[in-house]
Target: VOC domain-containing protein
Amino acid sequence: MKIESLHHVAIICSDYGQSKRFYTEILGFTIDNEVYRKERDSYKLDLSLNGQYLIELFSFPNPPQRPTRPEATGLRHISFGVKDIEQSVEFLTSKNIIVEPIRIDEYTGRKFTFFNDPDNLPIEIYEV
Model:
């Protein structure tokens, strides 16, 4: 098997409208496609960033909570590259998003930090 690329990350949210606004209005993703699946009582939202399809956002009735802390097995976080981390933190803070203090990657010397989406999914921004 030869993997060519990451195709997408699937995220299940508890409040579809809130998460849709977060990923589009705060993080700047573009909506490629939005489908309501009546038989599942579920939305599926395909999101792109800079023309690259990256996230499938799903809603399901009463999804179970994600065990996140301290460190649960499974997906740890998703990470996005940014050019200016201080400017990104300032923007997130202006939208009332709590951002952890900026850290320095001990191996690369690059700056990074974390914040959470509306369902407490950890998101990292990493200065590239």
Summary: The mean pLDDT is 91. The domain at 1-62 is CATH 3.10.180.10 (2,3-Dihydroxybiphenyl 1,2-Dioxygenase; domain 1).
